[in-house]
Design a protein that fits this description.
28 strands, alpha/beta, 11-stranded mixed sheet, 261 residues, 4 helices, 9-stranded parallel sheet
Length: 261
């Protein structure tokens, strides 16, 4: 462990092996930092943060900030961060509002400069969140999703796996998997075929099935309920299509670009 004498490290903090903590960083009490992490100057790791191994936290980031939620009553709550994440400058991640909840950041994520993750959000694995993007409270981002710069996810939204939200999108409903979403108001642009083709277990046939499903949802002119029924009748139901159908079926706050279920 390499700690600068100019860093503040509370004696109650639990610091793993081979951790580097640079000058002027602040490590609060009730903090756990796993092995092989690097905490750069002026980063703040606040009470309630639980961090795994291999993470790098850049200058000015604040992890475990107090929730910006009027329901927060000052309880000890948790921010849980997995392994091998890169958290760039001025990122702010809030901990949960209530003691029985968590804000969760999974493994292998890349959070670019000035990203803000609000209370009780759940970020999966291998996601990229672009410069200045804002993820509202209780949002869920599934694995391998990408948010461009200055994206805003409103409270309680969910983004599906392998989905790309282009720069500046504003989402107040769920954004389903495997697509590119663009424009404001946010709308379906295409399926994310280039990235899907780079996933080793997604064949051209599966990509064609996904494209067929989204043509029925967004371009057939029928209701979403009828589109889902037609997908079940016309498209092979492999794991990817099942995930798509389950995602939409579970979306109590609606789907981006769809007004009626």
């Amino acid at each position: 462990m390499t700690n600068s004498p100019l860093a503040h490290i509370d004696p109650e903090a639990k610091i793993g092996k081979n951790v580097t903590i640079h000058a002027f960083s602040y490590i609060d009490k009730n903090v756990e930092i796993g092995d092989n992490c690097v905490i750069m100057p002026y980063a703040s790791i606040l009470s309630g943060t639980r961090m795994g191994s291999g993470n790098k936290v850049h200058q000015g980031a604040i992890l475990g900030a107090t929730p910006q939620d009027f329901k927060f009553k000052g309880d000890d709550t948790i921010l849980e961060i997995g392994n091998n994440n890169i958290i760039r400058e001025q990122v702010i991640i809030n901990r949960a509002t209530f003691p029985d909840g968590k804000t969760i950041i999974g493994n292998g994520n890349f959070l670019l400069q000035s990203v803000n993750i609000m209370h009780d959000a759940h970020i999966g694995n291998d996601c990229i969140i672009g410069n200045g993007s804002r993820v509202g409270g209780n949002c869920i981002i599934d694995d391998k999703a990408i948010l461009g710069s200055s994206v805003i996810l409103k409270q309680g939204c969910r983004v599906g796996s392998w989905t790309l939200l282009r720069d500046g999108c504003r989402a107040n409903k769920n954004v389903p998997p495997y697509i590119i979403a663009a424009h404001n108001p946010i709308s379906f642009f295409s399926i994310n075929s280039i990235l899907l083709s780079k996933c080793g277990n997604v064949t051209e046939e599966i990509i064609d099935d996904i494209a067929r499903a989204y043509r029925l949802i967004y371009q057939s002119g029928v209701s979403l309920e009828n589109a889902l029924q037609e997908i079940k009748e016309q498209v092979k139901i492999g794991p990817e299509i099942k995930y798509l159908l389950d995602f939409i079926g579970d979306s109590t706050n609606g789907i981006m670009g769809i007004t009626v279920l």
